[in-house]
Amino acid sequence: MRRNTPLITLLTGAVLGVALLIANMLATPSGKPVNYSAAAASAAASAVPASTSAPAAAPASTSAPATEPSLAPPSPAVSPSAAAASAPAPVAKSPAKATYAGRVGGGGGSVAVAIHGSQVVAYVCNGSTVEAWLKGTADGGRLVMTGKNRARLSAKYSSGKLTGDVVAHGTDYSFSVPVVSKPSGLYRATAVVRGATVKAGWIVLPDGTQVGSFEDNPDSTDPSAVEAPVLDVGTGTARAGDLVLHAIPVDGLTGSGF
Prior knowledge:
five-stranded antiparallel sheet, single chain, eight-stranded antiparallel barrel, 38% strand
């Protein structure tokens, strides 16, 4: 009996130690706090099905290749002066209201043309034997006009110049004349003297030169004309002997004299 006493004592101590260890583990919480973010991430990852998981990132060696150089030749640089030269020239519009005046080519005469909308009045004169009044229409930058004794005028016009030819008393004149403004332009005067009509016309050029004629019987089939008296453009009057003529400007801009 005494021989088994130490063994019993040893077994009893072992059982008691195991019991104390188990009790200590149940009573003492873990010293390491729970990482809630890690736990949540772990739970979310476990909730995603394997078929919807994100694809693995491509390895560095599979990056996109560098862009290949373009085979098209580079566009040549266009200078501002070259671009301006290649641009279409603006089209000059024909004015609806204007007066043109200037000298005709050869013969020493002058011509004046007043355009007011579609209406046109013209006068050509060399200061003595050659003179004619003409009327017609303006359409699309072109004029067609006629007058007594087969006088005719055809021309084309733009914002700055009128170019064409006119025939009066059998003489053909070419011309290219500019736009003018008062006091330059065309003037006309009529009066009745002893029952007969007299008529005068003046072309006043930009340099102040006047070219005009005076008809004592303009209604005849072969009127005779002499050089017109000097016109005072300030008062619009001219004196022919005892007769005072009152001139009216034939002006395309205002429509006066049409």
